[in-house]
Design a protein that fits this description.
alpha/beta; homodimer; Nucleotidyltransferase, domain 5; 5-stranded mixed β-sheet; globular
């Protein structure tokens, strides 16, 4: 059986999995990042993991199609070079990781940033399956995106394409973490939602103030969702407004790219029931009819496996792109 | 010599040209649209023109690579179907023009909308030459766009991709022709510029009022450019503000797509010296550094030939895409 290894290189853990061409994870392992945070240690850890998979899983080395890695940071996915990592210690600057991996693992390797990788995973094996054009959007502290057009990941000239969170939807809007005003992230990122939640708490409206006290003042998106689930109007308004702004950003993507599918993932995506209706209504109001009719907006499907499966799709995608 | 015919199907004229693979127009002809406004008459006119080119130009029919057509309207470029034409009479609804042309001309044919076609022309033979990722933006009454990613025209699921003019950059902005508020077109389209010019004229500021009187009240973008060229501050302010807003729209495209080049064409593009500096400054302020550094914003090069050359590139692009 042909197999591929997908690696989700995170700030705390390195998750490694054996992934089939259909995106099924048939074996996995976890390494602590702090013990594999240099390029040499990372490669060594990966090589050992691949050997263990082989021995325990009865997998033939000859059928290993390749190893794909997704990591958080500025990465040239075309050439597999890590320019800079976020949240990972250990001097990852200008590391030709693809080349390094190929030398030590003796198989085709690929490296790209984590959001691109998840976009690819959802496209090949998740909520974007069966489409040609798919936009992935992740909602969380950061609002990121990955574009697949004609079955291929769009990296652009700088390898940075997909930054839908940093498209300006209101030049007079709130300040964004990137320094600009009115980026999509400044309206729907965790920081914006928590600002709105704290305002509600200060005003003593509804259930959020007492929930916040119970949580010892730790206000999170989950807390706002909890209040919304319980029917709290102020909490639902926070999600509804986020839905409006998300709808503007996604309508822009529909008019510009006419994707068949928009897949929404990330931590905040759990609040789907409270932001999705307004998001859809705004999209229908703003986007042209033909591309809007051709586009479905859905929740991501891969969850925690997305990083591993997507990284494996960096390898599988090369094969299947030709046969799609 | 291999040759291709490019057709620019406009509301007044049908321009037809023999185009080389490098985008040179070596012969051309013009038919009045009103006499070829039905599908049957259009195809007949085209067939006759191709025969004349052959006979007068000593071109061999055997070396005709194909005929490409660009037309204004809602067109499915993947299948060459005209859903609806703008500014052309004669019942163009659901016309399988590509199929019809192939039956009568006995060569490969292609049909797409005029903006996509110009984007393709600039990409293969104009200001976008030598790049892999290029965004074309046309400034005029409408603000349209065409995207080329990895050397291929992006049509999207509905065939409508590229509508950068109808991405919202300020939800509280002025009403757009499409019905929404704050689309890019509502800030930088001709209507928006003329609204600003008329306000200046009403206030009696600078040279615009007297220029408008000389033009018998016919206020045009050319008039505002004339005033700007003469050093008029109010006129220059109109262009500078348009540059700011265009900069927002283009910065969004840079963050989302990371194109190597953005090519600006269309009627208003003549005012380049007055809007480009502020456009660039805004882009540098808003877009991420890496994709901004990787992107050049330039003026279109093909001018009046763009429609013919681009249409021919619908055919030549199929060949050259493979060898790029």
């Amino acid at each position: 059986m042909s197999w591929t290894v997908g690696v989700d290189f995170g700030g705390t853990n390195i998750k490694i999995g054996v992934v089939t061409s259909r995106g099924r994870v048939i074996a996995d392992a976890v390494l602590p990042t702090r013990r594999h945070a240099t390029p040499a240690a990372f490669v060594r850890g990966l090589r050992d993991a691949v050997e263990v998979f082989q021995q325990r899983g009865g997998l033939s080395r000859r059928h290993l199609q390749g190893v794909g890695v997704g990591a958080p940071g500025l990465i040239d996915g075309d050439r597999g070079i890590i320019h800079r990592l976020v949240n990972v210690p250990g001097g990852w600057r200008g590391v030709h990781l693809q080349q390094l991996l190929e030398q030590h693992l003796k198989c085709p390797c690929a490296v790209d940033n984590d959001v691109n990788v998840i976009a690819l995973g959802e496209f090949h094996a998740g909520a974007g399956r069966g489409t040609r054009h798919s936009v992935y959007v992740t909602l969380g502290t950061g609002v990121g995106g990955g574009l697949i057009i004609d079955g291929r990941l769009v990296r652009g000239a700088a390898g940075s394409a997909g930054e839908i969170g940093h498209t300006v939807i209101d030049p007079d809007g709130p300040r964004c973490g990137c320094g600009n005003r009115g980026c999509l992230e400044a309206f729907v990122g965790t920081a914006a939602l928590m600002r709105a939640a704290r305002a509600v708490i200060r005003k003593g409206q509804g259930r959020l103030p007492s929930l916040a006290r119970q949580a010892h003042g730790r206000v999170t998106p989950a807390l706002v969702s909890q209040a919304a689930r319980a029917g709290d109007r102020a909490a639902r308004r926070i999600w509804a407004e986020a839905g409006d702004y998300l709808g503007i950003g996604l309508a822009n993507a529909v008019n510009l790219l006419s994707p068949e599918r928009i897949v929404i993932g990330g931590g905040i995506a759990n609040a789907w029931p409270w932001f999705a209706p307004r998001m859809r209504a705004t999209m229908r109001a703003l986007a042209f009819e033909a591309p809007m009719r051709a586009c479905r907006v859905v929740q991501a499907q891969l969850g925690d496996r997305a990083g591993i499966v997507g990284a494996a799709m960096l390898i599988w995608g090369r094969t299947t792109a030709r046969t799609r």
